[in-house]
Amino acid sequence: MLADKARIGHTDQIRELLRKYGADRLSAVDPKHYEALLRDVEGLDDGR
Q: pLDDT confidence of 47, banded at 50, 70, 90?
């Protein structure tokens, strides 16, 4: 899902969200944050 959002123009927002969860790439995100990160990514459609 992150790659799809990045492809349609949300690359900067994806990077910001990863940093919000203390990571510079998806594989570095603590699994306990996956659900919240997914909700944040889903919300990117709203403010494109």
A: low
